[in-house]
TrEMBL record, chain A:
<dbReference type="GO" id="GO:0005524">
    <property type="term" value="F:ATP binding"/>
</dbReference>
<dbReference type="InterPro" id="IPR003593">
    <property type="entry name" value="AAA+_ATPase"/>
</dbReference>
<dbReference type="Pfam" id="PF00005">
    <property type="entry name" value="ABC_tran"/>
</dbReference>
<dbReference type="InterPro" id="IPR017911">
    <property type="entry name" value="MacB-like_ATP-bd"/>
</dbReference>
<keyword id="KW-0067">ATP-binding</keyword>
<keyword id="KW-0547">Nucleotide-binding</keyword>
<protein>
    <submittedName>
        <fullName>ABC transporter ATP-binding protein</fullName>
    </submittedName>
</protein>
<dbReference type="InterPro" id="IPR027417">
    <property type="entry name" value="P-loop_NTPase"/>
</dbReference>
<dbReference type="InterPro" id="IPR017871">
    <property type="entry name" value="ABC_transporter-like_CS"/>
</dbReference>
UniProtKB/TrEMBL annotation, chain B:
<dbReference type="InterPro" id="IPR003838">
    <property type="entry name" value="ABC3_permease_C"/>
</dbReference>
<feature type="transmembrane region" description="Helical">
    <location>
        <begin position="724"/>
        <end position="743"/>
    </location>
</feature>
<feature type="transmembrane region" description="Helical">
    <location>
        <begin position="674"/>
        <end position="704"/>
    </location>
</feature>
<feature type="transmembrane region" description="Helical">
    <location>
        <begin position="628"/>
        <end position="653"/>
    </location>
</feature>
<feature type="domain" description="MacB-like periplasmic core">
    <location>
        <begin position="413"/>
        <end position="603"/>
    </location>
</feature>
<keyword id="KW-1003">Cell membrane</keyword>
<feature type="transmembrane region" description="Helical">
    <location>
        <begin position="20"/>
        <end position="43"/>
    </location>
</feature>
<feature type="transmembrane region" description="Helical">
    <location>
        <begin position="412"/>
        <end position="436"/>
    </location>
</feature>
<feature type="domain" description="ABC3 transporter permease C-terminal">
    <location>
        <begin position="633"/>
        <end position="752"/>
    </location>
</feature>
Length: 244, 758
């Protein structure tokens, strides 16, 4: 299995030492995410799940441990090298959408493609495809402030997928949405996952996590449970027997 | 390439979102650069017409005026370092009559073939022609003053009183003397035969000789040797330095003003830029983090910001360069814009711009890439003072606003300082304005107690004095004579103004240091003269007036706006009788409220047009251009202040947008919320404006006096702006600022603020 791992963390530790007392946020996490897997990271507030996902994407530095991305060690990279890596291999979706406020929807989605070296025309075609697929084709020239929360998150998703990243990291993507929009966004995530996209999603909502193949539970910075969800549609007699 | 493409998208979008602020930044920088370029061009020698004229006419470096055309002059021509001579030409003093005006002129005899050295450069018409013996070529500035055209009659009155009418054959440029009317008498060239006809008496004329030197710097040495060699033959002597100085007078003062304001403005503009860029970066921390999460590196984000904010500054620099070039080209001619100082300014301001935005850009680059990281203002607690203020029931909006004002120390300081600097410059500008007003309102404080000068003309001196004294509006009549004196060791002439008595009936010179002279043998001098001769108050000065020595003790310093302050003022009885009797003119002090022009007209009428009446030219009239400069610069400085204000207001709004919902929830009315926001910006504005006005008012007088000192007029002219003006300026600045801050605050207070994390 290990040769298939898209993302691997080995004994990952994060200790915030800014204040008077060092605060350990992540305490030795071992995690392996295989290609095409949809992993939900669950846990209560302060369990270190966001920190973990930020470290996996290089947004935050680790204190110790290793991170492997597509078979290459990534934790030793500099901040700039991480940035370059992110362009092609990692897509991020955040709780508060984080669309660039001054740019139109179209520009927001084209930006990562341009950054990854696509020509303006390629970027535009890709953006048209993505927005069309997300039913946002007619909102291309709108500014993010004119969109609803769900629409914004769909745009953010389009942006994260613009470069067909190796892994999509989503930090509470539905945390700021009402139930209808949550359903829309989750449906989209499910769709891209079915197309083979590897996804790591942080959530504290069990219903959201239920969409994933596998749920990793964090508590106080440690993995307390790591289980594959048995999916009703996939449930065969053999599998049930295997599991029990 | 890919980063550039993505970056340019971001920059374009961001600039589109803040068009107003961006335009303001560009305009402010452009204004400053234009002012600096204009300043340096005016200060640069090349704007001085002297250089061009001197080269064009192959001018002489030293001009000497002698009584005779004697053998001694040959010795002068053989002096070391003299490569060629012009003349000696015979020259006779006349009065030019034009449109009822009488202007002093001197006619110089020149041959029909122009000489090799110091040949006037004809700009219109032609040179003298033996076929037209009544032709005259007039120096350009003199011709312009008299509104003479080619072919026009040019009537002159010789010392004998006889009238002669000449016809203007040509108008020519010359580097032989300064421009009319700063340099009198005006100059005209005629054929020798014509001069013999107009002024047959050799004793009433003088001889003018120009020496061209191998080395311009040797002018001083050569002129000293000329003084020794010719001794009492020599009447006056000028070097190219005095002529150059006479031609550049106003440019220099304006240039200094512009440079002072430009440098102050540049500091203010750099601050405004840094503030704007810094505020913008603070406001965009989340967007920047998003960019980083997408794959922009730290360096690329910093570069992006540097390019965006730097580009605004650089566009400003470019626009300013064009504008500055256009202004100077219009004012002094395109050819005189000196490339090297202009390039220095462009490079310097560009560097200043990049340095100003560099720090915020670098800080923006260091934004952590986690977009959720809040960029909250530091310090969440109410200070003890604030709690006390709430306790004593000060309006909560005021207290909260005051607290908000200082939650971010560096931007608060930048805002205060960024408003204080333009306000200081504006206050200094108002001080200059007040000084000019003071010149105009109290001419006696700049040595113009007398507002009319009467020359006897055809009348007897005593008759003229009687006529002038009899007028009902004339308060006092001071007889006076201006003579040129040779300063020993200086090899050049200075002006000695003898007017009034030494002990009684003294002319009230504005003595600002030491005391007024009280007896013959004492004198007061302008700063320029003290500097020129290197003397202090209390020292003795020995000058030569027409061959006879004049030894006086300088007992005081006057404010002296004439001749770069190189004037020695004495009582008429300090001069030898041969120089002072009869007096050359009468200076008339009028009763307060008397109309100068009416008195002049009346005197002319009563004397049957035989008196020559001249009005004193107030220095404020000569410096009227400064007022235009002040207005223009005030506009630019206001732009800078506004740019700062927008930044402060945007930042305050952004920092407290989330608080607004809380404030409303706590029960503050929209009006109170608005007041909180306005107080936050307004307090910084008031601090900055008041500090700037106070600083400006305290340095304005000193700066103007310093300028007065260096220009020879002398310290003691500076006036601070009047308290009323200053208070009005402060109120206007604060009022405008509050009005500008009110608009976004109002919008924010009315808006439905969503309670979300930022």
């Amino acid at each position: 299995m290990s040769d298939e791992a898209v993302l691997k963390a080995i004994n990952l530790v994060k200790i915030y030492s800014g204040g008077a007392v060092p605060v350990p946020a992540v305490r030795g996490v071992d995690l392996q995410v295989d290609a095409g897997e949809f992993v939900a990271v669950m846990g209560p507030s302060g369990s270190g799940k966001s920190t973990l996902v930020h470290m996996l994407g290089g947004l935050d530095s680790r204190t110790s441990g290793e991170i492997w991305l597509d078979g290459k060690r990534a934790d030793t990279l500099s901040e700039s090298a991480w940035a370059l890596l992110r362009r092609k291999k990692i897509g991020f979706v955040f709780q508060f959408f984080n669309l660039v406020a001054n740019m139109t929807v179209a520009d927001n989605v084209e930006l990562p493609a341009l950054l990854a070296g696509a020509s303006p025309r390629e970027a535009r075609e890709r953006r048209e495809d993505l927005l069309g697929a997300l039913n946002l084709g007619d909102r291309a020239d709108a500014s993010p402030a004119q969109l609803s929360g769900g629409e914004q998150q769909r745009v953010a998703l389009a942006r994260a997928l613009a470069n067909q990243p190796s892994v999509l990291l989503a930090d509470e993507p539905t945390g700021n949405l009402d139930s209808r929009n949550t359903r829309d966004v989750l449906r989209l995530l499910g769709r891209v996952h079915k197309d083979g996209q590897t996804i790591v999603m942080v959530t504290h909502d069990a219903r959201v996590a239920a969409l994933a193949d596998r749920v990793v539970s964090l508590l106080d910075g440690e993995i307390v449970d790591d289980g594959r969800i048995a999916r009703p549609r996939r449930r065969t007699v053999g599998e049930v027997i295997d599991l029990r | 390439m890919s980063t550039a493409r993505a970056g340019s998208r971001w920059i374009r979008a961001d600039l589109r979102a803040r068009k107003g602020q961006a335009t303001l930044t560009v305009l402010a920088v452009a204004g400053i650069v234009a002012a600096l370029i204009t300043a340096v061009t005016l200060l640069e020698d090349s704007t001085n017409p002297w250089r061009g004229l001197f080269a064009q006419t192959e001018g002489a470096h030293v001009w000497l005026y002698t009584r005779d055309n004697t053998a001694q002059l040959a010795g002068v021509q053989a002096l070391d370092g003299v490569t060629a001579t012009a003349g000696p030409y015979r020259s006779a003093p006349v009065t030019a009559l034009q449109d009822g005006r009488r202007e002093p002129a001197s006619l110089r005899a020149m041959p029909a073939t122009p000489p090799r050295v110091a040949h006037p450069a004809v700009v219109e018409g032609g040179w003298l022609d033996p076929a037209q013996p009544d032709g005259v070529v007039v120096e350009r500035s003199f011709a312009r003053e008299l509104r003479l055209r080619i072919g026009a009659p040019f009537t002159v009155v010789a010392l004998s009183g006889q009238r002669h009418t000449l016809y203007v054959r040509g108008i020519a440029d010359s580097a032989d003397q300064g421009f009319y009317p700063e340099w009198t008498p005006g100059l005209g060239w005629v054929l020798p035969e014509a001069l013999d006809r107009i002024e047959p008496m050799l004793g009433r004329s003088e001889w003018v000789t120009g020496l061209r030197l191998a080395d311009a710097d040797a002018a001083q040495v050569v002129s000293q040797r000329v003084v020794v060699m010719l001794d009492d033959q020599l009447q006056r002597l000028y070097t190219w330095r005095e002529i150059r100085a006479a031609m550049e007078l106003d440019n220099r003062l304006l240039g200094t003003m512009l440079a002072l304001f430009g440098v102050g403005g540049l500091v203010a503009a750099a601050l405004a830029l840094a503030n704007a860029a810094g505020g913008r970066v603070l406001g965009q921390l989340r967007d920047l983090a998003t960019l980083k999460s997408m794959g922009f590196t730290r360096g690329q984000v910093a570069l992006l910001l540097l390019v965006e904010h730097g580009a605004l500054g650089l566009i400003g620099v470019a626009l300013g360069t064009v504008a500055g070039w256009a202004v100077t080209a219009l004012a002094v001619g395109a050819s005189s814009v000196a490339p090297i100082p202009v390039l220095t300014i462009v490079a310097g301001t560009a560097l200043a711009v990049l340095a100003a935005v560099g720090v915020p850009a670098w800080r923006g680059g260091r934004t952590p890439p986690i977009p959720a990281a809040p960029s909250q203002p530091p310090g969440g607690r109410l200070s003890r003072l604030a709690r006390l203020a709430l306790l004593v029931r000060l309006p909560p909006a005021l207290v909260l606003g005051t607290r908000d004002a200082f939650t971010r120390r560096v931007p608060a300081f930048l805002t205060v300082f960024g408003l204080a600097v333009p306000m200081m410059m504006i206050t200094i500008g108002l001080g200059v304005w007040a000084t000019l007003d003071n010149f105009a309102r109290n001419p006696e404080q700049v040595g113009q107690h007398a507002s009319l000068y009467v020359r006897p003309g055809k009348l007897e001196a005593a008759q003229a004095a009687r006529l002038a004294g009899a007028d009902r509006d004339v308060a006092a009549v001071y007889p006076g004579t201006d003579v040129n004196a040779l300063a020993p060791g200086e090899g050049r002439s200075v002006r000695v103004r003898a007017v009034g008595g030494s002990a009684s009936d003294r002319y009230p010179f504005p003595v600002v240091e030491g005391r007024m002279y009280a007896e013959p043998g004492e004198a007061v001098a302008g700063q320029g003269l003290l500097d020129l001769l290197g003397v202090k108050i209390g020292d003795r000065v020995r000058l030569t007036v027409g061959g006879s020595p004049l030894i006086v003790r300088v007992v005081g310093r006057t404010v002296e706006p004439d001749q770069d302050g190189e004037v020695l003022s004495v009582g008429l009885d300090s001069l030898a009788a041969k120089d002072s009797v009869p007096p050359e003119y009468y200076a008339l002090a009028l009763h307060p409220g008397a109309g100068r022009d009416e008195v002049a007209a009346r005197l002319l009428a009563e004397s049957g047009e035989n008196l020559e009446v001249q009005a004193a030219v107030n220095p404020a009239d000569r410096l009227a251009m400064i007022r235009v400069v002040i207005v223009a610069l005030t506009a630019v400085l206001t732009l800078i202040g506004l740019a700062n204000l927008l930044t402060a207001s945007a930042l305050g709004l952004r920092d407290h947008a989330a608080d607004l919902a809380v404030l409303k929830a706590m029960g503050l009315t929209p009006r109170q919320v608005m007041a909180t926001l306005v107080t936050g910006t307004g307090l910084l504005v008031v601090l900055g404006v008041v500090a700037g006005a106070a600083a400006g008012a305290s340095v304005a007088t000193g700066l103007i006096d310093l300028q007065g000192h260096t220009s020879g007029v002398g310290a003691g002219i500076g006036r601070p702006p009047s308290p009323v003006t200053l208070a009005l300026a402060v109120l206007l600045a604060v009022g405008t600022a509050l009005a500008v801050a009110l608009i976004p605050a109002r919008r924010a207070a009315r808006a439905q603020v969503p309670i979300t994390a930022r």
